[in-house]
From TrEMBL:
Signal peptide limits: none
A biological process term (GO) from this entry: methylation
PROSITE patterns attached to this UniProt entry: N6_MTASE
SUPFAM superfamilies in UniProt: S-adenosyl-L-methionine-dependent methyltransferases
Pfam families documented for this protein: Eco57I, HSDR_N, TaqI_C
Organism: Candidatus Zymogenus saltonus
Lineage: Bacteria, Deltaproteobacteria, Candidatus Zymogenia, Candidatus Zymogeniales, Candidatus Zymogenaceae
InterPro entries: DNA_methylase_N6_adenine_CS (IPR002052), MethylTrfase_TaqI-like_dom (IPR011639), N4_N6_ade-DNA_methylase (IPR050953), Restrct_endonuc_type1_HsdR_N (IPR007409), SAM-dependent_MTases_sf (IPR029063), TaqI_C (IPR025931)
Ranges for domain Restriction endonuclease type I HsdR N-terminal: 26-136
Listed name of the protein: site-specific DNA-methyltransferase (adenine-specific)
Domain TaqI-like C-terminal specificity: 773-939
Length: 1006
């Protein structure tokens, strides 16, 4: 990009008058208007809002310089795209030394780090510095710390391309800005992970101290007390930084003793101002819920509260609490809620992971862009063309609300809609709903924000702590944009306190089970279920249910298999299976029950939007739910993320599922056909679209294909026997249940023994040859060949697959016995399946199909990039079960084909495309070759009387034999490719494909 003339002009003016600008008399406001504003105008930003956009849609927000506690309250500029902040800019007068001065850099980095803004700029025009604001700021950091670029004004002409390629409006719109910081490796010190560590340390401090000082507390009381204390401190500190409360109020508690007693006084004052359930200490008329009578009588040591409070303030604290987005705070709490406090018999507090969280592999919060998409396609859809009287009747629910991220998103959508409607309708008509802010922006009054929240937003969660966090998040959302002045005005004008009590909106209970369920199955006294009575007007949402139900149900339901739930809540698991059609088929995942429940709770014209695994599309456990949805034609939209991972550090293949109570003739299906590096910013890349007739769906597996490919798949399937029908067995090998013990890596072969490395003991060991067999993992099985393996497995079974007795093992293989008997190995072996194998500790956990291992068979890995079938005629090795293993395929002896022909068919391009069309795509380009998919493959069987087709089959057999031989020489790739192409042509002929259909196959395969 050529340097604009305006930039050259600015550089020249500054250079000629540099001494005057560097004097202390030249003000920051002057450098902003005379240099910085035109500089960024040249980068394409509408710095002065010359286009006249409403405040919420302006490119650039200029902050007034307001001091809070001696520190400026906000950065000078916020650059935005469509109302979304992209980066901050902090301006200084030229007399400030930006290159070396610590304070300005720390100030900017605190703002941007707290706001989770990856990059931001510090400039006085003379100097221009860019910081990686993902790095946690520390007050002693040098100015150069986390600085990724530094220029002086004399370098602007030379460096203009670098600046404009990242910070011009066009570059930001094209994604260059995002790519720039993604390419920069940054320490994992972002505000969410650091604040999580902070509040987890508070929980630990408070839990241990409160447990010791308050010996009569129960575990439930202790969890409640700790959570409330943390929530209240965060709320009050956020109010300070937002200017709603006196700055340093909590800090002042450190000047003296009896900190907790004085903190309680602040609680009562907060209740007088806010009326929030967070500070509900006494009964009042029309105030829901029971008051908190527990925490006022607690004893907490001063030293504990000092440790917490002292690190909440500048300059010790890196946090600017007014800048931490509420969705980020919710994400932090989502992780925080994955642990719980337990009391030991001696009444000591221990913080540990919840068992269901541990089993599920952790807590995974929903990214904000997913929340926004779901809200836009549910709440947003219902708001289109509506008026306030209709919107006031809209009821929005998250039945597993967690930290409240979806309800926050829905609430923000409603706030934006109401403000825009009132402005368009004429502000004069809506003086009770609107007021004009300092910058001329029209804002909703606190009273109107309260009304909308209480009227429209509802949530349930089984975890009471989650309920409290959702309430906290929503209350902070109400206070967004408020100040001490607006809150006090509210108190004077309307004689009411600033915040609502959300006890009637956000409730605790098991969304899936009611007392009615318990009573029907004679389990009424079971406490583990924590039932929730939806149709109860006092304890549930009876009025809403009687008035047709909820208009929007949104969220991210729990992903938890019932077999895991069974371990710690067996009664709940049994109740779910009895109470829901979707769960009646056996082991399922909880999310599918939430989908069934959501359909039950929806109003007649209501919309549901969930992010959930798409595994139910083609899993056995999803059959009943597929039947419910297909019979009622509930789908109106699906966005399938394919192999893309939405949740960080989790392997869940998900989709956005949008359902409606009203039957749909067609629905929209979108799918990501490739792996996208930055899904949030490239949401339209590599996406395919289909409009599908609802009548095409049934309880059978859902396969969403392009119409032409679907017709081809149907043609290939028609009048063919499946692989399952022509085989006697499709099986997996044995499973040791302790691979680190049994599987060894070859180091050196001897005459009678082999030296191997053992992962379980971390050293080389010596084992008798006679008890070892080659071990082949699925990834070693390739197309027409098996790669050499350097692994062996201890095989404590005889040739008939019968386990050696302990004496036989000791007498015949003493080295193996000694190794298996080692303490660390014995512990691993005995711990399998809760000690099930203690009496035969040297056995495999699943010694299945032992006699089939040495038979002639076709093998395929469990997962593979493409068809990788291999004909094994020798046996002599073990392949295992599970995702790292393989399947063996045995032909039925009555079928008039041989293994070589079947191998050619299975490895053909046609059947590969067929399998990929019905299988599950996995991350990294893999597909599942599980039994449930490969058994469906249609196999062409020639009639004995059809000489032409039998001749083609014979030619396929011969070509396969040639390929098997050629595969023994790694230099014959061209010959192999030629023969494989020839087999493909013969297969097309057998299956009767036209030239157009062949083009579809070969196009899909590329």
């Amino acid at each position: 990009m050529d340097v604009p003339e305006k930039i050259l002009e600015l550089v020249d003016i500054f250079d000629r008058n540099r001494d005057a600008y560097l004097s202390g008399h030249y003000k920051e406001a002057e450098i902003r208007s005379e240099f910085i504003n035109p500089f960024f105008t040249a980068l394409g930003w509408d710095v002065n809002n010359e286009k006249g956009y409403a405040p919420q849609y302006r490119d650039v927000i200029h902050e007034a310089v307001v001091k809070v506690g001696g520190v400026t309250k906000a950065p000078d500029y916020s650059f935005r795209i469509g109302g979304t902040k992209k980066f901050f800019l902090e301006a200084k007068k030229p007399s400030v030394d930006i290159k070396e001065d610590i304070a300005p850099a720390f100030q900017l980095r605190r703002y941007a780090w707290s706001a989770k803004m990856p990059l931001s700029i510090l400039t006085d025009f003379e100097e221009f510095a860019v910081y990686d604001c993902r790095v946690k700021p520390v007050k002693t950091d040098k100015a150069s710390n986390a600085r990724v670029c530094y220029f002086t004004y004399k370098e602007y002409e030379k460096k203009w391309g670098v600046i404009s390629d990242v910070f011009s409006k066009e570059a930001v719109l094209k994604g260059n800005y995002d790519r720039f910081f993604e390419d920069k490796k940054s320490p994992k010190e972002e505000v969410d992970s650091e604040f999580l560590k902070e509040i987890e340390s508070w929980r630990d401090l408070l839990a241990r101290n409160i447990a010791i000082r308050n010996p009569s507390l129960t575990t439930r009381d202790l969890n409640f007390a700790v959570q409330k204390t943390i929530d209240r401190i965060i709320f009050l500190r956020v109010c300070e930084d937002r200017g709603i409360d006196d700055q340093g109020r909590l800090m002042s508690l450190l000047n003296g003793e009896n900190i907790y007693r004085r903190l309680i006084q602040i609680y009562h004052q907060a209740d007088d101002r806010f009326n929030s359930g967070l500070f509900h200490f006494s009964r009042e008329r029309d105030r829901p819920g029971d008051p908190d009578t527990l925490t006022l009588s607690l004893d907490i040591d001063d030293r504990v509260l000092k440790d917490i409070i002292k690190d909440l303030y500048y300059p010790e604290s890196p946090y600017v609490f007014s800048f931490i987005p509420i969705d980020i705070l919710g994400q932090v709490y989502e992780q925080f809620l994955g642990k719980v406090i337990r009391l030991t018999p001696s009444h000591r507090a221990v913080v540990e992971e919840k068992p269901e969280v541990k089993k599920a592999g952790g807590v995974y919060y929903t990214p904000t862009y997913i929340v926004d998409y779901i809200v836009d396609n549910t709440v947003g859809k219902l708001l289109e063309g509506s008026a306030p009287n209709r919107v006031s009747k809209m009821r929005i629910l998250d039945p597993a609300c967690g930290s409240g991220s979806f309800l926050i998103g829905a609430y923000q959508k409603l706030l934006d809609w109401h403000r825009n409607f009132y402005e368009a309708d004429g502000v004069e008509k809506h003086k009770k709903e609107l007021y004009q802010g300092a910058g001329g922006e029209w804002k909703l009054t606190t009273a109107e924000k309260k009304r909308i929240l209480l009227n429209n937003i509802y949530g349930v969660d089984i975890d009471n702590q989650a309920v409290e966090v959702t309430k906290l998040s929503l209350l902070l959302k109400v206070l967004e944009g408020e100040s001490e002045e607006t809150i006090n005005t509210q108190l004077k004008m309307f004689k009411e306190r600033a915040l609502p009590d959300l006890g009637d909106n956000i409730k605790c209970g098991n969304s899936l089970l009611s007392r009615k369920h318990l009573y029907e199955f004679d389990l009424f006294e079971e406490e583990e279920t924590n039932p929730f009575d939806w149709d109860n007007e006092k304890f549930g949402f009876g009025t809403i249910i009687k008035n047709n139900g909820f208009d929007c149900i949104i969220g991210n339901p729990p992903y938890l298999k019932t077999q895991i739930l069974q371990e710690f809540q067996p009664k709940t698991t049994e109740l779910l299976k009895r109470s829901y059609i979707s769960a009646s088929g056996g082991n399922v995942d909880i999310y599918i029950i939430f989908i069934e429940k959501a359909l039950e709770l929806l109003s007649n014209n209501g919309l549901m939007g969930f992010i959930c695994p798409h595994k139910f599309f083609n899993s056995n456990y999803g059959q009943n739910l597929r039947r419910i949805i297909s019979e009622n034609r509930n789908i109106y939209k699906i966005l399938n993320f394919g192999i893309n991972q939405i949740f960080e550090n989790a392997t869940n293949y998900t989709c956005l599922l949008f359902l409606t109570k009203k039957a749909q003739i067609h629905f929209d299906y979108y799918k990501f056909d490739e792996e996208i590096d930055n899904l949030e910013n490239e949401v339209n890349k590599g996406i395919s679209y289909l409009n599908i007739s609802s009548s095409e769906l049934s309880e059978n597996n859902w396969v969403f294909l392009d119409p032409k490919l679907e017709l081809l798949i149907e043609k290939v399937r028609r009048n063919k026997q499946t692989l399952e029908e022509i085989t006697s067995n499709i099986f997996q090998g044995p499973k040791s249940g302790a691979d680190p013990v049994f599987i060894l890596e070859i180091s050196e072969k001897g005459e009678k023994t082999i030296r191997c490395f053992s992962n379980s003991v971390g050293e080389e060991i010596e084992i008798e040859k006679g008890i070892l067999k080659p071990y082949v993992k699925g990834k070693k099985i390739k197309r027409y060949k098996v790669e050499k393996t350097n692994e062996l497995i201890i095989f404590p079974y005889n040739e008939k697959g019968i386990l050696f007795t302990e004496k036989e093992l000791l007498d015949n293989y003493p080295l193996a016995y000694s190794y298996l008997s080692r303490k660390q190995n014995k512990e691993i072996l005995n711990s399998r399946e809760k000690g099930r194998f203690k009496k035969i500790w040297w056995s495999y956990s699943r010694p299945q199909n032992m006699l089939l291992l040495d038979r002639n068979k076709i093998l395929t890995p469990f997962n593979a990039f493409n068809s990788s079938f291999f004909y094994d005629t020798k046996g002599g090795f073990i392949f295992s079960a599970g995702v790292s293993g393989a399947y063996g395929i045995l032909l039925n002896s009555e079928v008039n084909i041989n293994y070589e022909y079947l191998l050619g068919i299975l490895n053909s391009s046609l059947l590969e495309i067929y399998l990929k069309s019905i299988s599950t795509a996995l991350r990294g380009g893999f597909y599942s070759f599980e039994n449930k998919y490969i058994k469906q493959l249609p196999i062409y069987l020639p009639e004995k009387s059809d000489e032409d087709k039998n001749k083609i089959c014979k030619e396929i057999e011969n070509n396969v034999r040639k390929i098997i031989e050629l595969k023994k020489d790694d230099t014959k790739h061209a010959d192999v490719d030629f023969l494989e192409d020839k087999i493909d042509s013969l297969v097309y002929e057998l299956y009767g494909l036209t030239d157009e259909e062949i083009a579809i196959v070969e196009g899909e395969g590329k």
